[in-house]
Amino acid sequence: MGKAARERTLPENEAKAVMRNVRISPQKLNLVAAAIRGKKVASALADLTFSKKRIAKDVKKTLESAIANAENNHDLDVDDLVVAEAYVGKALVMKRWTPRARGRVGRIHKPFSHLTIVVRQVEESA
């Protein structure tokens, strides 16, 4: 019984992890995502470990999840993995109000983001 298994959307040499509804603006999250895009996973983990950005800890956790998915679910070699894609999407925006002068209000937008990290196994060309 149960549902039929879905077709795999990624190629056989890729794995991904998604972090949803993170309380940070997409612009700020994309700065950290751009820093690891295209790097080997060992280098990307080192960069995230020593980054001063607050969100780097959560991005590192998502990258580690993608690595674990590649290793455990898809039998890929961790030493050959590269961050193929790291992209950010908009999520909901909480709207808040703050009082301003002369009885007016000022809008405050508190944006949320989604982060998707795709790792790919690349064979070393000797």
TrEMBL record:
Entry GO CC: cytosolic large ribosomal subunit
Keywords for this protein: Ribonucleoprotein, Ribosomal protein, RNA-binding, rRNA-binding
Keyword Methyltransferase included in the entry's annotation: no
GO MF terms, alphabetically ordered: rRNA binding; structural constituent of ribosome
Naturally occurring in which organism (per UniProt): Microbaculum marinisediminis
InterPro entries: Ribosomal_uL22, Ribosomal_uL22_bac/chlpt-type, Ribosomal_uL22_bac/org-type, Ribosomal_uL22_CS, Ribosomal_uL22_sf
Subunit structure: Part of the 50S ribosomal subunit.
NCBIfam families on file: rplV_bact (TIGR01044)
The organism's taxonomic lineage, starting at the top: Bacteria, Pseudomonadati, Pseudomonadota, Alphaproteobacteria, Hyphomicrobiales
Ribonucleoprotein recorded as keyword: yes
Protein name: Large ribosomal subunit protein uL22
Family of the protein in this entry: Belongs to the universal ribosomal protein uL22 family.
GO biological process, one term: translation
